[in-house]
Amino acid sequence: MGAIHKLDLTSDVTHLIVGDADTPKYKFVAKERPDVKCLLPTWVEALRELWMEGGEPDVQALESSHTLPALHKLRICVTGFEDMAFRKKLEDLVNANGGEYRANLTKDVTHLIAKEASGAKYKYAIDWNIKIVAVEWLAQSLERGMILDEKLYSLCTPPAERGRDAWIRRTISTSSLGKRVSDGDAVLSGPRKLRRVASTKLSSQNVGLWTDIVNADVQTDRPNRDQWSEQLVPCEASMQGTSSTNARSAATSSDGPSRSSATTIKTPIPPQVADRPLRTGVFAGKKLYLHGFNEKKTAVLHKHLLSHDAVIISDLLSCTPATTSPPDDEYLLVPHDMPNIQLPTLPESIHPPMMVTDMWVERNLHQKQFVRPEANVTNTPFRIFPIPGFEHLTVCSTKFEGVDLLHMSKAVKLIGASYDEDFTPNASVLVCRQVVEGHEKLRHAHHWNVPTVTAEWLWDSIKSGELKPFAPYLAQPYSERPIPPAQKQAVGQCEIKFEHNAKRIHSQ
């Protein structure tokens, strides 16, 4: 889905998926890393389901609903508090923050909150190796939102000293442009701050720039060029041929001594050249006209296309006139699920721009380089959808990953078939992006007699607008198995049509 998984808790980690709180990583984050978000494993699955469905998930809302509760999986008992109203408040706090309040002390209790070091529960907790803490531990753990080190909240510690250095209350801030950072600040927080800023920028480029188009409602901004950015100006070709006499003359007329032994020559740069930004984005030099998108998606596309140096035109008449040479940098961008009858009518006075889909934009942003529209079937509008015969098929896949998996599943649904990410004997066909001999899914397909075909079967069916037979695309032999009558009729007609065409070609 575009994120980066790391085995080690490095300084650029932004999220920690927690299965067990009693681990060094969890304890380090609780004390040292308030910038890291701790989430339940269900967060990943929830995001994946929405990503596969092509929905518009509210990422911040998902993070909130799957945030790890402060007292996750803890079973807490209390002792020594005679005020029943206060005990009820403790019970409510425990239950409301992911813990389980226990009135009786049993061996499976994880924590005993004690008012003083005495009493039957206190003695049994010692015998059963149950963690005993002061009430300050509960208050500060809830304030931090994580389980803090219980050793710092011993009843033997004076109340004023309990919880000292339990966690670093660090405020993450950024200095304004042009403000120097003091030496002390540089020593204390410089390396971590620099790595954090770099991580934020990389995260916004790797995730925000293309998951928004995949319908993830992530709000990210591309860092603007500031006064510290260097402007690269290409050297004049004629400068390479400058004579040594001119070089010595330029060096002699300079106002101050040279800073290096090598002589350099600088020529005045016209203001219009110096102020011109260097266009190096994925869509640099490309002109795009958007058609058929709603207001929200249009805004998202504008944001990311412009941030990657595209030129958005608002009128098709701005395209290259038909009387000139046809261009190769003009594109008409439409939704991938737009029927042909809704595609815009192009004026005869212009060269027709190349028609592309939003999935083409997604692929460019994901690969971080310009991809020719003809490189993949999903980059351009489908001729026909749904395609007759596909409504009876259940398609499974293997070796598709990332944006390829997303686009393939969308294409399968668009042409009328059902897509199932779980491979079962009920599958109609297994589509392989890459055929790996001995792969688990291929072995099961052979055992279940499920036809296994290469991805070209799907792409050729979409290109031609008709269901292609399996036989020419088989990745491994299979014995035809009984299939539902409607499905058998659809595929059988294609097989007959293929054999008829083969005989006709052979006779010709």
Write the layout of secondary structure elements.
Elements: E1 15-17, H1 24-32, E2 37-39, H2 42-53, H3 59-65, E3 75-79, H4 84-96, E4 100-101, E5 111-114, H5 120-127, E6 131-133, H6 135-144, H7 183-211, H8 244-252, H9 271-274, E7 287-290, H10 295-307, E8 311-312, E9 330-334, E10 354-357, H11 358-367, E11 394-398, H12 402-414, E12 418-419, E13 429-432, H13 440-448, E14 452-454, H14 455-464, H15 485-507
Parallel strand pairs: 1-2, 3-4, 3-5, 5-6, 7-8, 7-9, 9-10, 11-12, 11-13, 13-14
Helix pairs in contact: 7-11
General description of the model:
This protein is α/β, with parallel strands linked by helices and 508 residues long. Helices cover 35% and strands 10% of the residues. It contains 15 helices and 14 strands. A 4-stranded parallel β-sheet has the order 4-3-5-6, sandwiched between helices. The longest helix is centred in the middle third of the chain and has 29 residues. The two termini are 50 Å apart.
